[in-house]
Predict the structure.
Amino acid sequence: SFTVIEALEDGLKRATADPSVKAVVICGENGKFSAGVDIHTFSSAEETRRAGLPAFISVIESTEKPVVAAIEGIALGGGLEVTLGCHYRVAHVQARLGLPEVTLGLLPAAQGSQRLPRLIGLPAALDMITTGKHIPAAEALKLGLVDEVVEGDTVEAAIRLANKV
């Protein structure tokens, strides 16, 4: 929802402005990263007043401090697009990633169709974008979609990676 996007953007801006913060980890709750944006918001009048997800992802990408996504459960649609704006991505071994919008007749609208090919190459990105398939973390690692796959605490692993970089 727009409320969640605005809260995430506010938190990222506060972390960026705080000199004691060296890096940022974005994670979900209850073992899930994000299933994406509620498609009902696409036609709302509220959408025209707010910049929304693409603008937030651009803020992530332009942040000078490292931003690491800690992906647990699922990162689908807009959730995966958020991770694509992050500088690094750590996924739990059971995580699944994908852009399922095409199964609803939509293309990824938060710049996923631009960022994904840059990260994993055009053939693999086209396959993900046009089929809507969800890929497991191990395949995402092979493709270069994630930087690390872990069996333990994903957030802790993301923090360790953030501290390294």
Observations:
- The chain has a mean pLDDT of 90.
